[in-house]
Amino acid sequence: MAFLQALHPTDAVFHKRIQELVTKYKQPKQKANPRGPKKKLIRHDTTPVQQFFALVQTRLDMLAAAAGSNSLASPTTKEKQASESRKPFNWAVIDSTDSTVRYP
């Protein structure tokens, strides 16, 4: 800058540009925070996301408790059919069938 001013320019545009550069670089530097901005402390139990998940969890627990009490009181029809369709395996049936393999 000083070198350009020492030339004593006569051109008005050149002189104006030099003055702009001088004012730009002579401004006081803004103090930079080396540690960065401070973070706000967040109380995790009061965030909307945590409240939402807590609400969903309580509803799921209530539904599970209701389903558990219903299943203990009376088994569902599928469970009744499954228990009725299960019969002990009869090994005598295997012995009575012809187990020899015949090839054509």
Walk me through this protein's architecture.
The chain has 104 residues and is mainly α. The protein has a domain at 1-26. Helix content is 58%, strand content 0%. It has five helices and no strands. It has helices at 2-6, 12-25, 48-73, 77-85, 91-96. The longest helix is centred in the middle third of the chain and has 26 residues, at 48-73. The relative contact order is 0.04. The model has no long low-confidence stretch (mean pLDDT 72). Residues 77-87 have a biased composition (Basic and acidic residues). Residues 25-44, 68-89 are annotated as: Disordered.
Summarize, please.
Residues 77-87 have a biased composition (Basic and acidic residues). With 104 residues, the protein is an all-alpha fold.
